[in-house]
Amino acid sequence: MGKRKKPNFIKAALTKGAEIFKKQRRALASALLVLGAVLMLLPSLYKSYVEAEVKEREKHLASLEDFLVVEPRYDHGPIKADPKLLESISTKENIPIRVVIPRISINLAITPARVVDGAWEIPETTAAFGLGSAPPTVVGNTVIFAHARKELFGPLRSVKAGDDVYIFTSERWFAYKVQEIKTVLPNQVEVLQATSERTLTLYTCSGFADTKRLIVTAKSSPDKP
């Protein structure tokens, strides 16, 4: 008897399987080559990415230079005092001792603040009255400031035009209404200049990294003392 031949369909299946295997092997080889190339390029690609990221951050920081004030001692302190306000007319009787803003629950003792190196000192636990600014008993600009902490002037960010503000001395009290709210840079001392009417200026830190100051201007209420 002669040798039995394999059926044609088996032969065709084996041939097809061999062709598929060859194609998959070639595809796998190509994939491995690509992966190897990527792995070889990865360090240089990562280095380029890091360098680009560093340049972008340096560019961003450079764009902020106009807003950043590099004065470590006063980074979170008050605006620089206007040199024209260095002659104090305050006495023990007319110096403010308490500030109250009922709507935003501010009720703080006030400490007199001296001018040191061209800027007012700022207390850690109370509001401050800038010595050299006008006491509330006379016509002029009364300057009160504090840190932007929640137990100090943090709530000042929620103040609104028309809010009542009360300043107390040891002998009497004075009523004001908020007229204007704005933010300025620390060197914009014009907000502290003397005025021809009874004015109250409140301020605290504001802005990115506390680089700006929130200014609240209030005017004496005509129907109050």
Please provide a brief summary of the model.
This protein is an alpha+beta fold and 225 residues long. Helix content is 25%, strand content 26%.
Average pLDDT, all residues: 77
User: What is the number of beta strands?
Assistant: 10
What's the helical proportion of residues? 10-25%
Domain count: the total is 2
Question: Major beta sheet, specifics?
Answer: 8 strands, mixed, barrel
Determine Rg (CA atoms, Å): 36 Å
> CATH-wise, what's the superfamily of the largest domain?
Sortase
Order of strands, main sheet, comes to 1-2-5-6-9-10-8-7
Number of helices: 1
Compressed to H and E, one letter per element, the order equals HEEEEEEEEEE
Indicate the proportion of strand residues: 25-35%
In the CATH scheme, the class of the largest domain would be Mainly Beta
Shape: rod-shaped
Structural class, please? alpha+beta
**Cα separation of the termini:** 132 Å
Q: Give the uncertain stretches in residue-range form.
A: 64-77
